[in-house]
Every structure is written in structure tokens, then in C-alpha cells.
Amino acid sequence: MSTEPDPPQAADADLEGLSEEQLRAAYEAELARIRVQDILIQTVVSLLNLAARRAGLAGGDEEPDFEQVRQAIDGTQALLPLVEPMLGPDAKQVRDALSQLQLAYARSGAAPPPGTAPGAPRSGEPPPAKSEERGSAASSGRLWVPGQ
User: Fold this and answer.
1) Is the pTM of this model over 0.85?
2) Which of 31, 60, 130, 134 registers the highest number of CB atoms within 10 A of its CB?
3) C-alpha angle with apex 46: 57 to 123, nearest 5 degrees?
4) What is the dihedral of CA 124, 82, 129, 110, to 10 degrees?
């Protein structure tokens, strides 16, 4: 059984000529078939694909929109703990895609959201550890790179 959605044209053709009651029954049957985990995984994949496009990583002639990229990164980070166990070995691909987006965002030089001080936690994030609890790179604000 595939979790792939039907193409929109096929779904529309299947629903033409149905009464309101038949449409409602078809909708209820679809809701019974779909699982929450399917929607969560589909949402993560959609966020990553959209962000790659908005960052200019997927080709196309669109102007990059790094605010959209940031929102997709934040959304993916929030959902990742929920979907990783369901993805199994495919979770690595999702983490790799997220890392590429984070790198593209960092390289863009996009400003943090208004009202967010550099290094300040975003809403829902725990506050950073006290500097004496962190290593020298963390307390200096520099990115730690292994071997450097």
C-alpha cells in the first residue's frame, strides 16, 4: 500500500459527479486511511523541498527568500524528533538536507528575526548554558570545528 497521494487530476476526476454525501464519505474514508506519522513525514519533506527552492539550491529562477528558509529550518528542527524514529535509516538523508539548508542560510548572511539578539535562544529553545559550563569556542561565540 503506497503512502503517495494521488495526482490532483486523478483525484478530481474521481470526485466529479459525486453528491455532497458521497464527497463527505470519500473524505471520511481518506481521513481513516491517513496516519498522523504520514502527515508529519510529508510535512518535513515538503519543508525541506520548499526551503531548498527558496535558498536557490534546487535551481529555478526565483529570488532567494531566506526568511522562508529560516522558517522551514525551524519547523523541520521542531518536527525532527517526532519523525526520526519513523524514518529509520532514511533519517540521515533528512538530517543531511537540513544541514545543507542551515549552511546555505548561514552563508547568505541573512539577519536573525527582528527582536532576536545574536546567540539568544528562539522561542521554545532552552536558554544557553552558563559560559563556565561550555568550552572556549562556545563562550567566545565562534563556531567549533573539529581539529581546529
Assistant:
1) no
2) 134
3) 95
4) -60
Q: Measured at the alpha carbon of residue 81, what is the angle toward residues 80 and 86, in degrees to the nearest 5?
A: 85
Query: In the predicted model, is pLDDT for residue 102 greater than 80?
Result: yes
Residue 76 and residue 48 in contact, taking contact as beta carbons nearer than 8 Å: yes
89 DSSP assignment? G
Q: What is the mean pLDDT of residues 115-133?
A: 49
Domain presence at residue 137: no
Q: Does residue 7 sit within a domain? A: no
| Pair 95, 49: CB distance under 8 Å | no
Q: State which amino acid sits at residue 97.
A: A
Number of domains in the chain: 1
147: pLDDT strictly greater than 60: no
Let me know if residue 99 belongs to a domain: yes
